[in-house]
Amino acid sequence: MNPSLKLALIVLIALEVSFAQVWSVNVALCVVSLILMLWHHISWRRLLWLTLVPLFFASTLVWSLMLRGNASDHFLWVLFTRMFVYVYMGGWFTLTTKPLWLTRSLEQNAKLPSKFAYGFLAAFNLMPKIKAEVATVRAAALMRGEVLHVWSPRLYFKVILAAMNWSDQLAAAMTSHGFVEGAPRTHAQTVPLIARDWWLFAGSLLLVQLGMFIGLP
Amino acid sequence: MATVTVQSLTYTYPKQSRPVLDQLSGTFPAGKFSLLTGVSGGGKSTLLKLIAGLLPTSGSAITFDGQPLSAIAPGKRASTVAMLFQEPSTQFTMDTVENELRFALENQQVPAAEIADRSAAALAFIGISDLTHRKLMQLSGGEQQKVALAIIVAMNSDVILLDEPFASIDPPTRLILLEKLVALCTERGKTIVLADHDLSGYQQWVDHLAVLAGGQLHLLSAAETRDRFAAFTPQHLRLTHVQLPSDQLTVCLHGDQLGLAHSDRQLLTPQDLRLYAHRTTLITGPNGSGKSTLFKALVRLGRYQGHLTYHDTDIQKIHKRRYARQVGLMFQAASAQFLNVTVAEELALSQKYGNRTYFTPDRIQRLLEQLNLAGRDDQVLYSLSSGQQKKIQLLCMLIMAPNVLLLDEPLKGLDYASIQAVIHILTTVQRDLNLTLILISHQLSGLDDLVDLHLQLADRHLTYRGVSA
Hints:
Chain A has about 220 residues and is mainly α. Helix content of chain A is about 75%, strand content about 0%. Chain A starts with a helix and ends with a helix. In chain B, strand 4 and strand 5 form a beta hairpin. The chains are: A mainly alpha (about 220), B alpha/beta (about 475).
């Protein structure tokens, strides 16, 4: 499916799920996302993470509401399953969408300015660098007798400083490879946006609406 | 072919009063290989960035065959001028070699059908077709520089600027890159300007020298260039009293089958390595051979093969916090060391946890004076020049006085007077506190008094050298 449409679909469904209170639709969405993830050969390790983390948060949320609230069982179920909808749909999206392909699609199909499209991609590619920087800052602090924790402002000050430096470097890198803001570009690869994508998009949304009507209490 | 003309160019960095380039004029002739030299911090990088359009210039101080860069259509700018950076990993936007090439060619509005062929031809010209699908961040520095050059070849840029491109590159890769650059110059008529503060190993390759000094540019003729090269003698390591380690020395750090690798390239074949306590050891070796990687491994910031022990305890089994106080690293980049904003705050942090009995406020004040840094307490660290940053960084790490202090290029970018002061301070403090100093340095003059042991990294092996070697 076209990445931009896929993103739009997921955002729309997530928005709708946030306001609707139909747990059967939530379960259906979870099951569909799970099947899609299995279909795309998700690793068991990743699936386990995607299940355990929301399980923990959903359980604690529901548990605290049970102890201290007067929410109905129905509402508790809605809350519990909602968490899984977000995580599983997000899991399916990230599993099946390559960042560069999404960037190209946002640039070509969604007509997003190329500055934003490639800025997003570059930030994504920066992740491993940020990790290494955090490790270096913490080591530098230890050598000076300071322990920097995840919540130490000094750690963030340093990382933000480094990130500002990188953003300058990145701007220079893009310029030196011919990128000019707002200038027309050609596309080495065209991201197709075909009728089937629109049918899938509209069909999925329609199914969710039907589910909402039928499942309404 | 394009001639680069610079006319009365003045450039001052924001928040600084003295211009780094002052009414600079000069010409880089078309189709020639010019070597731009000058002291570090003299403005070489700034000049190149200005020519490349990476820093804003006013009006038409810089022209390519008479045209300023701003007058050239956006899609044609990269085919006019392109730049290869000093730090290899900072010049890419994409994840893989192929995608970066596509990105660059798309920016030039090359028709989609031609992109694949042009990319392949450029990679073949540099001889790295096998890297096409590799991830850029997993390549070695040398490979990244080759890719960066291949991209410039694909963009078909008339003027190629290179800012100390071999700073972290091993000698064989450097040779390949120089050969390709000369081929681009002679066969394709490219104008090449390469900046380096060290003249060694360039004589046979370049057409002429351009000297940047005091904010002014002087282009030397072919004859003057020849004389200049003839008068230049590369820095030689003169160590008159280093000795092979004797049995009486205490081993502080011991590597058992210690090996180092960068992605898939082996830098150090597994070997036995002993580093000795209470001595000053100098590690030398070609750029990119793995010296800094060794330091990172020693402070547990990088992976290594085999075992590393500190006074017979595996360093992985020592509490991180305790170990960091025993073995400290002065990073090559000064900014990596700083945790505060002003000079005074940074020094105060070191005083808080460091050796307070030796480094009394009086002594620190004296050291600051020796380093020509007195009276800068309230200055923001990041607004200091790179040399001043380096000196503050050194002072901060010395005050911490860890048993073992690793110094990665402590003299880099310092002027002559500062080098003398730093070496004097290092010698004194090492003797007074009986510290273990291990240093990597490309700046070799003046180290004789300081160094006791010399460890050479060559052919992926670290060996101790005596006086004769």
